[in-house]
Fold these 2 entries.
Entry 1:
Amino acid sequence: MDRRQLPIFEIERELIAQARAQRRLIVRAPTGSGKSTQIPQMLLDHGLLDEGLPRASRGRAVILQPRRLPTRLLAARVASERGVKLGSEVGYQIRFENVAGADTRLLYETEGVLLRQMLSNPRLDGVSAILFDEFHERHLYGDVTLARALQLQQTTRPDLRLIVMSATLPSGPLEDYLSPCAALEAEGRLFPVAIEYIDRPVDFDRTPAWEIATAEFERVCREGDPGDTLIFMPGAYEIARTVQALGNSAAARGRIILPLHGELPHADQDAAVTGYDRPKIIVSTNVAESSLTIEGVKLVLDSGLARIPRFDPARGINTLLVEKISRASADQRSGRAGRTAPGRGVRLWTEREHAGRALQEVPEIRRLDLSEVMLTLRAAGAGDLREFHWFEPPEPRALDRAETLLRDLGALDAATGAVTELGRRMVGFPVHPRYARMLIAAESFGCVRAVALIAALTQGRSLWMRKPDKSTREQREEVLGEEGASDFFGLMRAFRYADSHHYDVAACHRLGIHANTARQVRALAGFFLDLAEKTGLKIEDRAPETEAICKCILTGFSDQVARRVDTGTLRCLMVHGRKGVLARESAVQDSPLLVASEVREVEGRGGELSVILSLATAVRPEWLEELYPGDFHEQVDVEYDAAERRVTAWRRRLFRDLALESRRVDPPPADAAADILAEEVIKENISLPRWDETTDQWIARVNSLAAWCPELGLAPYSEKDRWLVIRVICRGAVAARDLKDRPVTAAFKDQMDPSRRALVEKHAPEKIELSNGRRARLVYTEGESPHMALRIQDLYDVSDSPKIAKGRVPVVVEILGPNHRPVQVTRDLAGFWRDHYPRVKKEMQRKYPKHEWR
DNA sequence: GAGCACTGC
């Protein structure tokens, strides 16, 4: 096909005109428009790359790609279109591959490569234009390089041309960001895809996604052959279940069913992408959304779910939870059915729910750990990232978290926040700052070689195949052994095994080792070691001590130190009050103290979340004392043990906020013990057996009298006063049973000074003497008059209600019949005798003739 | 089923 028929040529003239007039350009064009291969050539062929440069000097265009493979493929295609050798006029650069020369005019490279180049060539000399391809994917480095390029354009490089190319990004925000700029659009070469939704919402917790997917596939099949089918699921487990469900379905008979996800060996991934003589069903994760293209797909079935990685800056841990994908992502997925012919997209959610979904995915800059990018940008001279001109600014908390970590690692000055000498050396290593710090520390621990390997082992996928079967596990143990102070040691042994077996796939497979990953680890480890050597780190000749390596790991992750809650459990407490569970497969099973190099929250069955600590290394408390002597302190914690029903005290030694050892202090400190028992009494977890009616009455008497006669200056008991008295009662006690015989009412009385106590006894007495010589008990209730209850016969000769509180408060009399049942309640006894007694007497006399009736 | 998407230097 003549490349001039590509849709992008429809806008060539305008594009060149705008590129001449403007330094910033947006080009929106979908897949298949030819933008990635043709626009760079247009710039070159129209002389735009040399414009404004001195005679005979030549500028180059850098075309940024998010992924390595397409970078190489695009460069190869453009080179062949131009009939030049790859690496001459057209070249590419990705990690470990630099196929470009001084005369390269069109340089395809990954976003991360440019960011590193910004460190060594801060003005980007020689670069006339940067093209940001697939910018809508919003990868971290894409956002970062664009922001930094704009900053350069506004300062030292006003001549730099920036062209942002995207497929689907909505217009508006990007124009505002790049303003002043021009925006152009071109058509794509995709076929229409008919979208269908299910009618009724489905709860995937009750009816799993694989069942719905299978049912929908069967439904589509009833309408005719759907052709090659691509099904999107969030992860490997869901994929396995879907494959299983389809295998049991008659509709899928005669079709090849293939899983596809990143953990699969290369051969299996290739199997999913190749064509067969039979129709196929691919069940895939997000790899098939943009990284891998499967030709000939006619039907896409989309669960609408994906596992999305995030960094939680509040807790400083990574999460990987199943989330609903955005509308843009759903369109991208269904678009996979329209690459070669019109297709069909079936979505396992309702149209109504679709309307409520997010327009775009949250960009990486808003959900990933920023410490590495922060250090690189700061070292490249980008200044304060809070002031940086972001397309979308990162969360302030994420910046804070990154800055804190960099200060803790010593990369930023604790006081000024400037990049330290150590920080500058760390930037030299293209790894997370934790590993960069470890590499530098490794020199003094004499283990640079080992740490270079460790750093390499943590990049990309794990060397271990996931969920090995029993025989694989046994083979592993037999060949590699299982001894381990660190999970890294297991990985290192696996790597050495793979290396000594020349990365033989079968030999590695026997032990459940990814041979290809091991090969990449070797390249990386060698690369890190070269860098270490160039930086001037002394590389040891002898094998390092295990302990040195463990200590070195600790320097990178001292904020992820964890302690077992108890022996025999995997549950751990971490510094900063976090909790987690040690990975079951970890080799560090016996050490009570460990450091986790990976902390990740994942979602289990029924949406249950758990924080898994992996890549663990055993730690001895002495190492912490040696490396962080200032981060220790001791404290005595006094607490109530509900099971023992007693106060216990522990002397604890803490590393930061994590208790490393606890020793019981017996007896516990008396004051604190009394306080805690008193609190438990207030909370009614412990009772005071001798707290009785007289106690409550005493409190009611004092409080009532304080209200009736304020001039006496009595204070009513507040919550706090009671607490104080209870505390006195508890003094010297450590267990609930010590309180059994402690007097309570007396304690309340003793707490009051004698003159006041006498006032209470006088004006709010417990008992009152009546005019007929009898003594009656008074019952006090706060806010009410006191009561007394007496039989009529006991009230003879008491002509009127008695009064207390200096005669201000009449006692309410509950008059009882001979059967002790109330006859009348009155605060006016005189009125009773006069108005009611004659009638009462008549009635009662009949019922109780033997009693005295006056 | 105790639990792991995808990139990139």
Entry 2:
Amino acid sequence: MSTAEETDGDSTPWGEVTPEAARRLLVAAVEAFAERGYHATTTRDIAGRAGMSPAALYIHYKTKEELLHRISRIGHDRALLLLETAAGRDGTAAERLADAVRSFVSWHAERHTTARVVQYELEALGDEHRVEIVALRRRTDAVVRRIIGDGVRAGEFDVPDVPGTTLAVLSLCIDVARWFNAQGSRTPEEVGTLYADLVLRMVGARK
Amino acid sequence: MSTAEETDGDSTPWGEVTPEAARRLLVAAVEAFAERGYHATTTRDIAGRAGMSPAALYIHYKTKEELLHRISRIGHDRALLLLETAAGRDGTAAERLADAVRSFVSWHAERHTTARVVQYELEALGDEHRVEIVALRRRTDAVVRRIIGDGVRAGEFDVPDVPGTTLAVLSLCIDVARWFNAQGSRTPEEVGTLYADLVLRMVGARK
DNA sequence: CGCGAACCTGAGCAAGCGCTTAGAGCGCTC
DNA sequence: GAGCGCTCTAAGCGCTTGCTCAGGTTCGCG
């Protein structure tokens, strides 16, 4: 944990953001956006949380919207990586689906501050940036749809409506970011396990 | 449909809001809040959509936040009424749960513009108003939990974690407001039916 | 030591914000 | 038909917003 730097795990969440001042600003922005929402957050608030003057923000980022885009891009990349890793492992469709849901959901719970911004501030992005992010989300959808489709073809699952069920599964997982509370009684891993079970039921996985 | 006025159904969505100018403003606010979010919406935009000057808004509402509160209050009341009606009917727990989910979800799809504001702009409310709305949401949660609990006690459902499953079911239903698109390929009723089936699977209802 | 690049601040600009005020128009009653 | 209450508008106030810019500090490097 101390010497790890670019191992791409979750050890240093914003390790790819340099220099350090830019990372501090970005972390401050994540907190502020998650608490109040993008539009209700001022650049003065972000700079203040990072211990800087408002003008310092514009040395590292062209606009407030660019900050949101960086957060959204990195967050989507990480979430997609989690899903694709689980989907690519060996095992039955049920095992891969459970694994994917468990890691995707526990990430949304563990890092719910980031996830809230990533999942619910999409519409504040500018047109070009939004197009880029929407493409990532389509890949996310495709990964889940593929696992469910595999399970249906293998006779493991009973799913009358694959696209609809895919949508519902992803919607269920994403919404964890909205309600999860760190002070609550469940750990991120517990929520991940619960949700993996619920999703297996949704696709009619044989026990 | 033509002569119905105060029958409390969904025939005249904002029928309880009078006078007509106040209703026009409220409908305009719902559209604007749903499209851009509360904080990104200006009072000039709301008044403009209602065909009035900005000052006209303040004859009918004390502040912009009061508008949001009225929308949120009426929307929560309606959604809660749908759930309680379904929950209070005769039938097995599975029938009541399916009924509740179907009507709750198809309302969120049909009136997704309103529902988006109601469900996702909670945090923009002032402290007192938010407390009031949160109380309504707890009642919503209690209704669903009760049906699921009934089903477990009757041996109809297999649910290891009732509070967790209740949370997941409501989360799934509510999130319909976020992704539903009127131009999409599914009707609100189709989504309601699909979701009722998925929820019955989640609670392990016997076929 | 001298110099340039990188980083940051204090002050502030133009624009837009929520909301207020003075008064106009209109339909109602007595 | 004068007076009154209700509804609405034009104008604008005070403030905050995202963002800029000239200048200062710090640092590595010759």
